[in-house]
Amino acid sequence: MDCDKAVVRMHHYLDGELTVWRRWTITRHLNRCPPCAEGYVYEVEFRQIVASRCRDQMPPEVRQRIVEALGCGFDGMSTANEGPSSATTPPYDEH
User: How confident is the model at residue 77 (pLDDT cuts 50, 70, 90)?
Assistant: First the structure.
C-alpha cells in the first residue's frame, strides 16, 4: 500500500469500515511509514477533541416541544393506553 491509498482510506480505517485484509494492509503501512503514522495519530487526537468538546445542548423548551409533538410524556416515555399510536411508538431514550 502506498501513502496516497492509506490517506484515502484512513477515515474508513478509523471507523472500522474496512475488511480485515484492508485493515491489515493499512496497519502494516502505518507501522512502516512514520509520516502516515503521524497523520493517523493526528486524526485520532482530532476525533477525541471533537467528541469531548463539540456537544450541543438542546434548550429545554425545544426538547419539550419535540416531546409534545411526538406525543410522549414529559419524562420522555410514551404514556400507556393512549390509543393506537402508543402501541407503535418506541420509547424515547434521553441518552
Answer: very low
Indicate the burial class of 36 (C-beta count within 10 angstroms; 0-12, 13-18, 19 or more): buried
Cα–Cα–Cα angle for 39, 42, 43, rounded to 5 degrees: 90
Return the residue matching grid coordinates 411508538.
89
Q: What gap in Å lies between CA 74 and CA 85, rounded to an integer? A: 17
At 29-68, the pLDDT tens digits run 999 999 999 999 999 999 999 888 887 788 889 988 988 8
Rounded to two decimals, what is the model's pTM? Answer: 0.55
Residues in the chain: 95
